[in-house]
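If your schedule permits, I should be very grateful for your opinion on a structural question. Please examine both parts with care and let me know of anything in them that strikes you as inconsistent. The record follows directly beneath this note:
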Amino acid sequence: MGIGGLYLFSRSDMLSLIPPCGIYESYGVLCPGCGGSRAVQALSSGNVFAAVQSNIWVVLLVLGAIWLLCSPAFRIWAGPTARLRLDAVDLRVLLVLILTPVPLTFVRNAHLLSSL
């Protein structure tokens, strides 16, 4: 079911079904999620560069989700000596995922600051 969903979403005509961002339409400001659908569509098509151009935070979110989903397997494989290091990495991954949307939103909207 997941592979079928990825196939359907990777088709470019599926993006027309997604409604536009209300924040962007109302205020002309890119929110942290703007471009997220295009980024997921590009990732599902295997185009990482286009995904980063659309929304780098979504790419980080996908990589962080993969890491957090796979880290229990790494813990089992690595044994008890590496568990503390993996806990520290998990904490860093979560902090990056939580803290990056704010500065990225400012960077993405930097063109608006020059017009003030």
About this structure: The chain has one domain: 2-109. The mean pLDDT is 76. The longest helix spans residues 56-78. The CA atoms of residues 20 and 69 lie 30 Å apart.
